[in-house]
Amino acid sequence: MLEWLPKSKYSQQKKQITTWFSERVKKQIEQEFNVNCFIYLTGSGKRKLVLHNDGVFDLDFQIWLSQSKKRKPNQNFEPEKIKLFIFNAFKEMLEKPEFWKLEDSTTAITMKKLNEKISGGIEYSYDLVVVFKHPKTSESQVIKRTKNGSKFNYIWNKLSNEANDFEIKVKKIKELHMWKDLRDIYKNKKITNLKNTSKTEYVPKKSYQLYIESVNEVFDKIQ
Question: What confidence tens digit (pLDDT) does each residue in 172-193 have?
């Protein structure tokens, strides 16, 4: 049964991943690719819309890469090299890797905290999406993994204008006091997603995908 999770119940997990990044991963990325990088809580976690299923929950983060006049990316600044480097950096910094499972998802690096005492074996998880903002065009791009036969390819996938205007939609929803509508729709989408997970042909959606869908659905009612 999905229920709302107070911020106080996931603040420790938020602190854990941001501390790991700041103290063990950030410097490696900046030195390897000659960029600035930061990590931000995003999606449902940013808006206090985290749902848990018998205590199990997930949080979404974005790892932003940026360049300046003083820091220009080196020749290794390719999506595959960047994502796999960050993936391995997180994997190698774990003090107890046997308690974690890392996955290279389509657009995210997924980190699952394992706990054999919990039904399903997963206590909580992080989805980390790598984003690069071009200094000249201000376009935001995410690293996306595609598959061609048995081979994986990594590309920069430009975020649509809709995605760039996303925060404007969220602000408008709050101004019109439609936040409860958003909460209800998001929760229903999470419940449906959870129920369909057991179906063989169904591809489960990430929380941030369901959050984006929910915001767009509520915003469409305003138009």
Answer: 999 999 999 999 999 999 999 9
